[in-house]
TrEMBL record:
Keywords: Flavoprotein, FMN, Monooxygenase, Oxidoreductase
Pfam family, one: NMO
InterPro entries for this protein: Aldolase_TIM, NMO
Domain of life: Bacteria
Molecular functions (GO terms): monooxygenase activity
Function (record text): Nitronate monooxygenase that uses molecular oxygen to catalyze the oxidative denitrification of alkyl nitronates. Acts on propionate 3-nitronate (P3N), the presumed physiological substrate. Probably functions in the detoxification of P3N, a metabolic poison produced by plants and fungi as a defense mechanism.
Name of the protein: Probable nitronate monooxygenase
Native species: Jutongia huaianensis
Length: 352
């Protein structure tokens, strides 16, 4: 079976579990995935939402939770690889990166913006870094910037396609005509750009394909396009080990394709989410923000349509009608609970 090498470490099943916040992928899920031979990813987005300090000092709560959940995940991982997903759009982005490095994160995956300074924040550490990109142009611009300023390149790349969940690096127009994007060809173009930098730096830069990966057949298709591995998120939500509430998991099980909406996120990017009472309220008008948790760098509480921290934490706790439920495009194909072990075995067949 194909393996995934990231630096000196090896994932025996080339599956990265995508980071999902707030609170959907923390130590329990990430540790379980790593134990099964994949790479488990913790989302740092308001990761400390259930820490006692969160209401009064969210920065301290998040820093504490990053350290705690990485430690717990590594205990569960039995030597497997554990990392974090950190959104560039976070106000405390640099601090989250440094906290993750200090806590021993094996990898940092970074998107929802351009991680231009990521190499600076991990300098001197063994933590491997990967940007999330959606086009050949974005890949070239970022890798050229890293080469010029830091004389280094990415340790691996995550290509996130238009079927992914959460925040999306595409316009609404592109998302309305996914088939018209010919994204397979875009993946090939991105891989070609990455290969140029790999040759220049005399190193392997693995390419991971994400977005809409549901079956072993999808995995095989990604590999046939030239991918070294895949990133999967939505299917891990309905595992026994996922950190979200059971009500959140049930929303995924009962959600249908025609309930998916492309929304405007306060982050400033389109997002894919499940229709519910909360989105109906948003459609009727702005939901006033009562308290600011300082999560996003470019956030004006008098202008944003709603507080994304409040919306996401309500959902993950189980108030699925009054919270925001991000999801991938294939959620309608999810019908029952499973386990991380069974899901990893299923997806792994795509690499045989």
């Amino acid at each position: 079976m194909k393996v995934l090498r990231i630096g000196e470490k090896v994932a025996r099943i080339p599956v990265i579990q995508g980071g999902m916040g707030v609170g959907v992928s923390r130590s329990n899920l990430a540790g379980a995935v790593a134990r099964e031979g994949g790479i488990g990813i913790i989302s740092t987005a308001q990761i400390g939402y259930d820490e006692e300090e969160f209401e009064t000092d969210p920065v301290k709560a998040n820093r504490k939770a990053i350290e705690k959940h990485l430690s717990l995940a590594k205990e569960k991982a039995a030597g497997g690889m554990v990392g974090v997903n950190i959104m560039v759009a976070l106000r405390d982005y640099a601090e989250h990166v440094r906290a993750a490095v200090a806590a021993g994160a094996d990898v940092i995956i970074s998107g929802a913006g351009i991680p231009a300074k990521l190499p600076e924040y991990v300098k001197g550490s063994s933590t491997k870094i990967a940007p999330i990109i959606s086009s050949a142009k974005a890949a070239r611009v970022l890798l050229q910037r890293w080469e010029k300023k830091y004389q280094r390149t990415a340790d691996f790349i995550v290509i996130e396609g238009p079927k992914a969940g959460g925040h999306l690096g595409f316009s609404r127009e592109e998302l309305k005509d996914i088939d018209g994007l010919d994204y397979d060809n875009r993946i090939r173009e991105i891989i070609q750009v990455v290969q140029e930098f790999a040759t220049h730096f005399h190193q392997k830069i693995p390419v991971i394909v994400a977005g809409g990966i549901f079956t072993a057949e999808d995995v095989k298709h990604a590999v046939d396009l030239g991918a070294d591995g895949v990133q999967v998120a939505s299917r891990f939500v309905v595992t026994k080990e996922c950190d979200a509430s059971q009500a959140y998991k049930e929303a995924y099980i009962h959600g249908t394709a025609d309930e998916i909406e492309i929304i405007k996120s306060p982050v400033g990017m389109p997002g894919r989410a499940l229709h519910n009472h909360f989105l109906e309220k948003v459609q009727k008008g702005r939901i006033p923000v009562k308290k600011c948790y300082g999560c996003m760098r470019k956030c004006n509480i008098n202008e944003i349509p709603y507080c994304i921290t409040d919306a996401l934490t309500k959902a993950v706790r189980g108030d699925v009608e009054n919270g925001l439920i991000f999801c991938g495009a294939e959620i309608g194909r999810i019908h029952c609970m499973t386990t991380v072990h069974d899901l990893m075995m299923e997806l792994g067949k795509g690499f045989e």
